[in-house]
Each structure stands twice: as C-alpha cells, then as structure tokens.
Design goal:
The complex is a heterodimer of chains A (384) and B (279).
Chain A (H helix, E strand, L loop, with lengths): L6 E2 L2 E2 L8 H15 L2 H15 L5 E3 L1 H7 L2 E5 L10 H14 L4 E6 L3 H12 L3 E7 H6 L1 H9 L3 E5 L6 H14 L4 E3 L10 H9 L1 H14 L5 E6 L3 H7 L8 E9 L6 E2 L7 E5 L2 E5 L5 E2 L13 H8 L3 E7 H15 L5 H12 L6 E5 L8 H7 L4
Parallel strand pairs in A: 4-16, 5-6, 5-8, 6-7, 9-10, 9-16, 10-15, 11-14
Antiparallel strand pairs in A: 1-2, 3-4, 12-13
Helix pairs in contact in A: 2-4, 4-5, 4-9, 5-7, 9-11, 10-11, 13-14
Chain B lengths: L3 H8 L4 E7 L5 H13 L5 E4 L10 H12 L4 H10 L6 E4 L2 H6 L7 H10 L1 E5 L5 H13 L3 E3 L1 E2 L5 H10 L4 E4 L14 H8 L7 E4 L5 H9 L4 E4 L1 H12 L4 H24 L7
Parallel strand pairs in B: 1-2, 1-9, 2-3, 3-4, 4-5, 6-7, 7-8, 8-9
Helix pairs in contact in B: 2-12, 3-11, 10-12, 11-12
The chains are: A alpha/beta (384), B alpha/beta (279).
C-alpha cells in the first residue's frame, strides 16, 4: 500500500515522520483485511445493537419545526450509549485493535466525549486505556474526566501549548510514536493521516445508513437537506456518507466563535487556508486567528480532509456559527422539545434554523446530549 | 546538486558534530548566544528548529522548547532575521514542518520558502512530515537554490519509501537510531549498527541522531560507522534548565559550549575505532 492513497481531491494523505509510516501501513492492512470482512462487520453490528443501543431513533421535532419554519428530523445520536455518536467509532476501532493483537488504547479528547467512549470500549474489551486531554478542557469538562477514571482509564492532563484538543493530539502522537508495537491510537474523528479519515468514516457511516432508511420509511422520500456540526467532522461524514450521491444539500456548522470574520473562531472552512496539520493536508485556520469555540469539541484548528474536498467541489456549504447563535439554539431545543443538545450539536441546529426558508425537510444529526455542558449553561442562562 | 558548505564538512574527514536547537528558545537574544556557543564548541553543521505549533515528531523536551519559542514571538519571518543575525562558522540546516514551508509567501507550495531560506543563508532543510507526493517540488526548489534536502530514515523505513529517499536525499541522511520521538536516553540503541548497515550503499554521509547525550554515546555511534552525530534534546535540556532557573545567558552558553566540546571530542575518539579507520 503506497502512501499516495487516502487522499480526497488532493487533501488528506500521510504527512507524518517516516517512523510512523510503517505502523500506519499495518493499520491500513488491518482495516482493509479485518474490519471490512463480513465476520468483523457482523460482530460490529451486534455490539452496536446490544451494547451501544443502535439503531437510534429518528425524531420529528414538531414544535421546533413550527419555530424554524421547516420540517426538522433529528437523528438521535444523543441516545447512543455514552450520549454521543463517538461510540460508533471507538467500538469499531477498539474491536479492530483487539483483533490486531494490540493491548493498549490511547486517545485524545476535547470535550471528553471521545475519551469517555474510548474508556467504555477499553473496559468492555479489557484493553489498557490512556486518554490525553488539554488542561483547559479538563477544567471545563470535569464530569467526563470522572467518568473516564471510573471506567478505569488513565487521564493525562496536557499542559503545553493552548491546553486544548490540538495539544492533546500532539501528546497522543508522541505516545503513539514511542509505543507503536503494542498500542493503538484511537483517533476520535475523520482527521489525521490515512487511514484514519476513511476508517472513522466507515465506522460512523452507520448514522446515515440508518437515517436514510428511517426517513424514507417515514415520509416516503429523502430530506432536502442534511445538517451536522463540524469540528473534525466525524458525525457530519457519518451522516453525509449515505447521501453523497443523492439530491440532498449538505450543510456543515463550524465553531464560529466570535464570528468567522473575527480573529477568535474555529472555522477553517468558512474562513481558513490550505495547510498541513496532524498528518493531513487540509483547511486550517489562519496564523493570526486564535482557535476558539464555546464548545470544546469544535475547538480545533483544522478539519477532516474529506470536508476540505467537499468544500472545494461545492458539495457542502460550511458556515461558522457563533457562540451566541449556538447557545440560543441550545436553549431553544431544550425549551421546545425537552431535549438538551450538546453545545457542538447546537451549532448544527442553529444552521438548520438559518436555512429553514430554503428547504422544506431538514435532517439534523443530533450528535450528542448536553449534560456535559450544564456548567456553561448554568452560567449563561442564570440557572443557579 | 548539493550545498558546498555541507559537502566541505564531510569531505574534511572528521566525524561531523551536528547540534540542534530551537531558534528563539527561550527568547531571541538568548538563543542567538546559545547557537553561537555551539559553534564555538565545535559544531560542524547546526540544525536550527523553526517552531511549528503542531510538531508531530518531537518528544516533550523539544515540544516544550517549541512552545517557549512561539510564546516569545518566533515566526518564519523572525526566523530568517535570526539566521541573518547569527555569527557562526557552521552551515545551517533548517528543521521544520511542512505546513510552514507550504504556506510561506504568496504562492502555496515550497518555492517561496526555499528561496527565502537560501537568501537568508540556510544551507539545507529537514522536514520530518514531508510526504512522498510533496518531495519532488521541494527537491526541485532546493536544487534551484543549492540547498540540501535531508531525509530522516527510521528503523522501520524500508522498500519503496527507502528507495524514494535515497533518490532524493542530498547533503547527509539523518539516521534515526531508534523508534519513538526525539529525546535524550541513557542507552544508545543497538539499532544503530543495523540502520547503518542498511544504508551502506548510499552515497551520502550518514549522521545518526535520537538519544545521544554524552561524549561516550558519540564515541560509540561514530565507532559503529556514523559519519556524524546529531544531538538535540540533550542540548535543549540545558536551555530548558537555564530558562526554568532564570540563569544568566553567559552561564547557559558556557554549559552548552562545554557540552558541545564533550560531544565533539567523543565523536573524534570514536573515529579511531571506526570500522574503516585504517582506510
């Protein structure tokens, strides 16, 4: 397998030091030979059903639909075990690591959702698990830190750099480079060097596969638009993949922070440039921009390379959603439907509201629940 | 095509001592003094790190140095000023990540960066995360400006990847002595012998790095057949300690210079017991 593979219209690739090439080649081989086999897929689907709780429901949010002015269908990934779509991927990669003979998992985490989902799988599959998390995120996502520790994972606080997700990735890569023999680096999104973007997509695409069938059963046709938030972009790719050849408009909501035209945001597609980051060529935010989003899970300076391609070819419309717009959507869904979304997810909801005049039926990936964000919400909305 | 200054170092016959520091660590002025101290201490070539915020090949020692330098305001443009301000004999090799090379200047791609590096006085480049598909444009730009392009060969580099590097390398090859990220270790890996044996038919000098921190390590590596030794983390540790304890620049510079002498002397000792010492 040459390292020219795994590119998306020139984005992606394997921009890593040569010492990491061999382990990535082994992983690619394991992915193609084991994970794509019928036997593996059967076990994966079984575990998704009985451990993770799939299929997740599709919910027609009637009150929200009236408020937004379009029919809004929510793919309820917030109801997946752990409270977010992350488990689809960690279960897939965890099973693959086990079958490939690894006995240790490491992962980076921003909001703590991916770290938590990795800790779950580490416990279930009896694999040693270490999580890297920026100190800034450890402070704002304490409950997830407690959850990870309770399930037996070691949580390492990363104090260098901006103490956020990107720094956690650097620390995890350092660990991986040292321990490639026995360790699987369980990357949490469709980012990083090949094969991670296409491997994570393969495990997350169950979201769109189910949603496509569910909405056809419900309304007899496909939605006019599909919307998801985009940090690294795994829940978005997971939703979009099944619809890529269909006449369904794609929208991606990035962390717009204080506005995509400000210098504090996390929206490399809405306002960024081509660059090379964490082993992939992709869109990255400008040097003079501080990476910032109210949601830890979107607080990342790059994006999955397939999204960079989608933007380049005009397949998906990416917009920066500001912190304020996301918080409004967070509150709106809570009040109207009794569903508290994750702050990340709220960016997607805010974008759905923006496009409601242009589309009659909108499918939104409700990628996670908002329990982890209650401290922020309590401050913002004066709940104490 | 290759760089004359770097060729001259290896043609001189002594093993090359190639120290590495992050430019601007912990600040611009101190760093100038530190790099100049290494030059006085016997550096034959100096690898200067141009810091990038997301380094993916470095251990925590160098990651921390990168953070110190960035926080003190280092940028590619400042880096080129820094190179201009240095008063050193040794040719300079810039070690950085592809993003900075790719994004520099008006056009995307390596050309603007290479042109600017050459005009600033850089003799060669090491880009750890350079992927195969970007190597040819970079090689072409380096040829145009007489810059060497150094590749890092890992213990696991083989087959097509090894051949691709062999066809494109110039100046010297950076032989990674063991797996893992950069960082000083107390042991010197046996993988060195094997790595050198694999590269026996390459027609560029072999400089070995990763984990060398003492004169004895240097001696051992050279006696195993290396044409040069690359030392980073052991020197960055001295800079880090100086920064942490707020020591005067001169005191830290003196320690760097004497460490450089220890390593240079060790490397020269190694030459007498090298396999081809009698030829």
């Amino acid at each position: 397998m040459s390292d020219e593979t795994g590119t998306f219209g020139g984005y992606g690739g394997r921009h890593v030091p040569d010492a990491l090439k061999a382990p990535l080649e082994q992983l690619t081989e394991a992915f193609e030979e084991i994970a794509l086999s019928d036997e593996f897929q059967t076990e994966f689907r079984d575990r998704l059903a009985e451990y993770a709780g799939r299929p997740t429901p599709l919910y027609h949010a009637k009150r929200l639909s009236v408020e937004y002015g379009a029919d809004i269908y929510l793919k309820r990934e917030d109801l997946l075990h752990g409270g977010a779509h992350k488990l689809n991927n960690t279960l897939g990669q965890g099973l693959l690591a086990k079958k490939a003979g690894k006995d240790r998992l490491i992962a980076e985490t921003g909001a703590g959702q991916h770290g938590t989902a990795t800790a779950m799988v580490g416990a279930m599959l009896d694999l040693d698990t270490e999580i890297y998390m920026g100190e800034k995120d450890v402070k704002r996502q304490r409950m997830n830190v407690f959850r990870m520790r309770l399930m037996g994972a070691e949580v390492n606080e990363v104090t260098r750099g901006g103490e956020g997700l990107a720094d956690a990735v650097d620390a995890a890569l350092e660990d991986f480079a040292k321990n490639v023999e026995d360790t699987h680096y369980l990357v949490g999104s469709v980012v990083g060097p090949d094969p991670f973007p296409r491997m994570v997509r393969a495990f997350q695409s169950v979201i769109g596969d189910e949603a496509r069938e569910q909405i056809r059963d419900r309304i007899g046709e496909l939605p006019d638009a599909a919307v998801a938030c985009v940090g690294g972009g795994s829940n978005a790719i997971g939703l979009f993949d099944a619809f890529r050849e269909d006449d369904v408009a794609f929208y991606g909501a990035e962390g717009g922070g204080e506005g995509a035209d400000s210098d504090r945001h996390a929206a490399p597609l809405a306002d960024g440039e081509d660059g090379v980051l964490h082993g992939m060529k992709t869109r990255v935010i400008d040097d003079d921009t501080d990476v910032h989003s109210v949601s830890a899970g979107l607080d990342y300076p790059g994006v999955g390379p397939e999204h960079a391609m989608f933007q380049a070819v005009g397949r998906c419309d990416y917009r920066g959603i500001t912190d304020e717009e996301a918080l409004d959507a967070f509150k709106e869904l809570s009040m109207l439907e009794g569903i508290i979304p994750a702050l990340e997810t709220s960016h997607g909801l805010a974008l759905a509201k923006q496009i409601a005049d242009d589309h009659d039926t909108i499918l939104v990936n409700l990628s996670g629940r908002g329990d982890k964000d209650m401290e922020t919400a309590a401050e913002q909305f004066d709940l104490t | 095509m290759s760089n004359d200054a770097i060729d001259a170092v290896f043609e001189a016959g002594d093993p090359a001592f190639i120290p590495y520091l992050v430019a601007g660590d912990p600040d611009y002025e101190s760093s100038l003094a530190y790099v100049e101290a290494l030059d006085r201490g016997g550096a034959d070539i100096i690898e200067l790190g141009l810091p990038f915020s997301e380094p993916i090949a470095e251990g925590s020692t160098i990651q921390d140095a990168i953070v110190r330098s960035l926080e003190a305001g280092m940028t590619p443009e400042r880096f080129f000023d820094f190179v201009g301000d240095l008063d050193v004999e040794a040719p300079l090799v810039c070690m950085t990540y592809y993003n900075l090379v790719y994004q520099y200047g008006q056009q995307r791609g390596p050309r603007d960066f290479v042109e600017r590096a050459a005009s600033a006085g850089i003799s060669g480049l090491v880009i750890p995360d350079l992927p195969a598909e970007e190597a040819d444009p970079l090689r072409a730009a380096c040829d145009e400006h007489d810059l060497d392009l150094v590749f890092i060969v890992a213990p696991t580099t083989e087959g097509e990847r090894l051949t691709r590097m062999m066809d494109r390398v110039s100046g010297y090859v950076y032989v990674q002595a063991r797996l893992g990220t950069t960082g000083a270790r107390d042991d010197v890996s046996d993988q060195t012998d094997e790595s050198l044996a694999r590269l026996a038919d390459w027609d560029v000098p072999k400089a070995v790095g990763f984990g060398i921190k003492t004169g004895e390590h240097a001696e051992r590596i050279v006696s195993a057949g290396a044409d040069g030794i690359i030392v980073g983390s052991a020197l960055v540790d001295i800079v880090a300690a100086g920064a942490a304890n707020d020591e005067p620049i001169e005191a830290v510079a003196d320690r760097l210079e004497s460490k450089a002498r220890e390593l240079t002397d060790g490397a020269v000792r190694g030459l007498t017991s090298a396999p081809d010492a009698d030829t």
